[in-house]
Design a protein that fits this description.
Blueprint (H helix, E strand, L loop, with lengths): L1 H24 L16 E5 L2 E5 L3 E3 L1 E4 L4 E3 L5 E3 L2 E3 L2 H19 L4 E2 L9 E2 L2 E5 L3 E3 L2 E4 L5 E5 L3 E3 L4 E4 L5 H4 L2 E5 L3 E3 L4 E8 L3 E3 L4 E8 L4 E4 L2 E3 L56
Parallel strand pairs: 1-4, 1-20, 2-5, 2-21, 3-6, 3-22, 4-7, 8-10, 9-12, 10-13, 11-14, 12-15, 13-16, 14-17, 16-18, 17-19, 18-20, 19-21, 20-22
């Protein structure tokens, strides 16, 4: 009987080892990009006001809702359409809030609370800060994929900081970076920033800052001063321009906003016609 019990204990222990090894070797699931919906066409979207000063240049739509004040065009220049308290900007705000909640609800893979993003090299994933986040210097996002930054309160960058993707700033790749900010974001003087900023309150871009992505404030204002902002990598679902790059994704509601329901022009987008949503197996029309 004693030998039998000893054998059972040994075999039970052996059975646990490969399971534990398998579990620890299992990679974390890749982050899923929040769906911006019709907000994808907006380079700047505010809730109360949008204010632009200096020689700012914006590629993408500019909108505000439920507020109606958009000031500074001109002297600021726009390649896109202004939407002040209309149905398009209202729907974009609804879709942006949904994307904000998607980003906030993503499972955190790395907690960076209390650390400065400057000097870091990060792989695709979900990075969280329980309170504020600071960027001083250069953040390098290493490789293609989705990056989500969950920030409990404020996002602030020091002057002349930068966000790079694989040591460069490819516009299309910037569209897969999401900054979910629990209060307000301030992009410092001369900062070269990348990604979609979804701030619960307000966004301020100070003198000379550039943004490849989107500045979306859900409850407050967006304020700009001599900035360059480009809505990267996606065609719009709002009502204005079409971005410089075409899409080439499978059928379905992907994060790029390029699926048949969102693209403005199927003759110039590489979307698939027809098919089952979510089926990536067929290449689109060139």
């Amino acid at each position: 009987m004693a030998r039998g019990l000893k054998f059972l204990r040994l075999t039970a222990g052996l059975a646990v080892i490969p399971f534990a090894a398998f579990f620890s070797a299992t990679p974390a699931l890749a982050a899923t990009a929040p769906n911006l919906g019709s907000a994808v066409g907006f380079a700047v979207l505010g809730a109360s006001t949008v204010t632009c000063t200096g020689a700012s240049a914006i590629t993408g739509d500019v909108g505000v809702s439920p507020g109606s004040a958009i000031t500074g065009f001109p002297p600021c220049t726009l390649t896109g359409t202004l939407h002040a308290a209309d149905a398009v900007s209202a729907q974009a705000q609804t879709d942006a809030l949904s994307a904000y909640n998607d980003a906030k609800g993503a499972a955190c893979t790395t907690d960076l609370t209390g650390q400065d993003l400057g000097g870091m090299t990060l792989a695709p994933g979900v990075y969280c800060f329980s309170s504020s986040a600071q960027l001083t210097g250069t953040l390098n996002l290493n490789g293609g994929g989705v990056y989500i930054f969950q920030i409990g309160s404020t996002l602030t960058t020091a002057s002349n900081s930068s966000v790079l993707i694989s040591n460069a700033q490819p516009c299309d790749a910037s569209s897969n970076v999401y900054w979910q900010v629990g209060s307000s974001a301030t992009i410092g003087t001369g900062t070269a920033f990348a990604g979609n900023i979804l701030a619960l309150t307000s966004i301020t871009l100070t003198t000379g800052a550039t943004l490849q992505g989107r500045a979306i404030a859900l409850n407050g204002a967006v304020t700009m001063d001599t900035n360059t902002i480009i809505a990267c990598g996606q065609t719009n679902g709002g009502g204005g321009h079409e971005s410089h790059s075409k899409c080439n994704q499978g059928v379905g509601n992907g994060p790029e906003g390029c699926d048949p329901g969102n693209s403005n022009n199927h003759n110039t987008s590489n979307d698939e016609n027809g098919g089952t949503p979510g089926d990536p197996g067929r290449q689109g029309k060139k």
